[in-house]
Amino acid sequence: MTTLDRRLSEMGWKLLNIEVINGAHAGSIYRIDVIDQENNKAKYIYKEFAGDRNNEVDVYGKLKSYIKPFSKLVKVWNSSPKAILMLDLKMPLKETFKELPIRHKKTLIEGILQKLSYLHSLNPRKAANELPTHFITSEWREWGLDQIKKLCLRHQWAKSKWIKTIDYPYEQLGLTNYMFRSPLTLTHGDPHLENIFYFEEHIWFIDWEWAAIGSPLRDITIMLQDIYELELIQFAFNSYRGILEVKNLNISKDDYRSDFNHLYIDHTTMMLAWEIEKYFQGYTSEERVKEITEFKIGEIDRC
Fold first, then answer.
1. Degrees (nearest 5) of the Cα angle 108, 110, 115?
2. Is omega for the bond preceding 81 within 30 degrees of 0, making it cis?
């Protein structure tokens, strides 16, 4: 009997079918069909974490009451191998977002922003004692520079001047010394479109590994990393400040823009490095990584 079979049996469930979900994951992910204790058939996602990437389990333990309205988590196993069980939410937004008409994209973005605003307006007092506080560090700068250098060695279209584009804001603008100006809130930490689902007419988030106390603009600038249209980026930027005001989270225009720009540069550098890494691992085509790299370098330069 496998660990999964045993765990389901202890719940009074029976495993009918299991399918491996391939990808660049921090562990092993499976889509499973089960019969529950009431003899109902249902689909779930079972995730076993890699030994060095199981922080998400601890986060769920610390933030259970906070996360419940935002997640379809069913069960957490703290014993080895650490794992979680969640409802199968079907496809992440990233898989369908690109092909949608612009008006539908704006509707989805507004829905995501509204959902994040509920998270950001929670009283973080208890969470603040349980979670780290997020600051901009040199981690993504170093990874981004390393990835661009590797890309330059492999392809002629990769430009060495991109190294200076990444280096400049960290070196000359003191990105790593920046102190956030907006009120600190509970943040998801990784809500790009691959971690966001639209299911049963609601927005849901998965992968809370990087949850922390930080600027609410942290989540917005990460969400935008899977969006490649300037009109939509500007729409999200303009919309979210108004949404926060309705939730009585008032941030001055200058402070809002300052937090956004600093975090957007850092997270664009982070996602650029990750997209290049996915290309090196064979998950992305050369044509696509070229498009992504040129766009994100342009966004860093624009900020």
1. 95
2. yes
Q: What whole-number distance in Å separates Cα of residue 294 and Cα of residue 277?
A: 15
Domains assigned to the chain:
3-87 (3.30.200.20), 94-302 (3.90.1200.10)
* Count of residues in the chain: 303
CB neighbour burial string for 291-303, b if at least 16 within 10 angstroms, e if fewer: ebbeebbebbeee
Contact 266, 224 (CB under 8 A): no
Give the three-class secondary structure for 17: strand
| Tokens (6 digits) for 8 | 């389901």
For 188-228, write each residue's pLDDT tens digit. 999 999 999 999 999 999 999 999 999 999 999 999 999 99
At residue 102, what is the residue type? I
Distance CA 19, CA 187 (A): 31
pTM: 0.94
Report the alpha-carbon distance of residue 221 to residue 267 in Å, rounded.
7
Sign of the dihedral through C-alpha 163, 164, 168, 171: positive
